[in-house]
Amino acid sequence: MAEGPRSFSGPGPKAALPLLLFLAGGFLAPLLAVIAYSFMPPRTFGLSHQPGLANYVEIFTSNTYIALYWSLLFAVMTVVVLAVVCYPIAYGMWRVFGRWAPVITLLFTIPLFVSENVRLYGWVLFFIKNGVLLGTLKSTFGLDLESWLFTRPMVLLGMAYVYLPFMLFPMSLGVAMVPRDLCEAARDLGATRWQLFREVELPLAMPGIVIGMLLTFVLAVGAIAEAKVLGGQVIIPIAHDIEIAFTYAQNWPLGAALAVLLMLIVGALVLLVLRRFDLDAILGRR
Amino acid sequence: MTAPSPILELRDVTKSFGRFTAVDRISLSIAEGEFFTIVGPSGSGKTTMIRMLAGMEAPTSGDILLHGNRINDVPANRRPTCMVFQSLALFPHRTVGENIEFPLKMRGVDPAVRRKRAMDLLEQLRLPANYYGKSVLKCSGGERQRVALARALSFDPEILFFDEPLSAIDYKLRKTLEKELKDIHRETGKTFVYITHSLEEAMVMSDRIGVLRGGHFVQVGTPQEIYTRPRNKFVSEFMGDVNVLRVSAAADGTLEAEGVAGRIRPPDLPTGFSEGWLIIRPEFLGFAGDGAIYDNTVAGTLYNEYVLGSRIQYQVRVGEHVFTVERLRQQAVSQALDTEVTVGWNAGDGIVVVD
After folding, report:
1. A217-264: per-residue pLDDT in tens?
2. What pTM does this model have?
3. How many angstroms separate the CA of residue A271 from the nearest CA in chain B?
4. B96-106 vs B141-154: helix crossing angle, rounded to 10
5. Residue B320 and residue B25: Cα distance in Å, rounded?
6. Cβ–Cβ of B76/A187 closer than 8 Å?
7. Looking at CB atoms within 10 Å, which of A34, B15, B266, B354 has the fewest?
8. What is the value of ipTM here, to two decimals?
9. Considering only residues 170 to 209 of chain B, which have any Cβ-Cβ distance to chain A shorter than 8 Å?
10. In this predicted structure, what is the pLDDT of residue A9?
């Protein structure tokens, strides 16, 4: 890690000042507002009330942990599925396109120009009874299968689909960081294909892989539309509870407390991973 | 130095990339324990050749034999050979010790045995024992060279290949490492195959040198042979500063040189020689009046002088030619620039080649 600035009067900090102000206004202030709201009495709309822990008490005495469990479980599963799916893609693209692979990987982000809900409803049309898949099977082969929509695997599929670019791009950067002559040297020194992967390719691509995993995890924990559209509420993620609290239930302080709690849990997990995988150590800058 | 049993043999080996032929029907045999160097300019096919020998490329046609067995299709990881890369290709995420032990780890060697071997190699390569746990990224250029060599030696391969590992190193350290490498070759008795673009580097280390150009060997021989009997102008010029004159045979058995007045008494000429090149090394040239008697003399103007430490180099303009003369410091001439000098050499010190 770079050393911190020794003084705050140099040209560096001065140049960074506009950005710091922007971050303070656009990022820190809303965050502080959310934290402040979480200590307000339930169902109030101002910040001038006597602060208390009523919302947190309510969360810990209710069954909110179920939603939290689903969110974390599906986020972890999404990360695992994407790691397994994206590595071969990233590796193959690197072998075919070389240095240009990360640029070409950006093409995978083109679907992001279309609204997530629209893309998910596309999947609904594909999987729905008498839809693209089942309708075709029925009319061509006479197979009349039950639809897989509104099941948990379908939620996982939706999440893996939506967050794929966020895993693939950092991962392809990571894979492209592995010098080819190191792979050739490892082979020449007697490594089998599997040993080459385990001893050289994977550890050297790790910074990209870890960043991809963290990014997809953080995004997937906040996922809401997949469970709604493809899962038909078969699971209720925590983000759904937060949305309900802010909208239908009109209980901002409770929603704020849920959001703060989620932030703390995700933040702690991310810190834990970053300590386990010290990016500098992975890169060899010990 | 040709031992009876060749360890490595190439028979009509060709490698083409599309329409481009990088290596063109090369046959060669390398003896066990030999230090063989392939020298050539960039694009001569030397990298392609060593990659084929190491098993990273397959020949388009022809055979590569190790101990008489065809190894064309044996992948690099199953050959008893090892390559030291130009980039060295040390694993940046591993320590010096882990790098050296890598080939042994891949072969499932017991950790204690591996460690012992790594420590022995550190000692052999004059690296301190506490480097075992050091990150390779914290090692200097010369230390990295030694780590790469230790790693290559650790699994006791029969042949070591070197792909210009010294090209990115500064002159002084390179000179030291060249000698160290030759020492290591003596100590281990292994077969070394080295590629470089510097004939000078090749001369220092090699038992035999193959000069490569356009995918062919122009000449294969000992450093002595390459130096004293270059087969053509290309080989002689590859060594550095040489004086080259375009010459043709005169009726009386002497030579006529383009742009130089008078006849030149030649060395022994190839039979049926009519025209070609006369090559004279700078150290065989002297000045008239320095005490020696020369068979051939030409008059010119002293243009400039360069002090090269123990030697001094002079540039003499003769007509449209510039002669390079190299004398030992003790034989320096005290003559002002732009004055007349007469350059001389003995007939036997010239080399005549056809192409």
Report:
1. 999 999 999 999 999 888 999 999 999 999 999 999 999 999 999 999
2. 0.83
3. 22
4. 20
5. 40
6. yes
7. B354
8. 0.83
9. none
10. 76
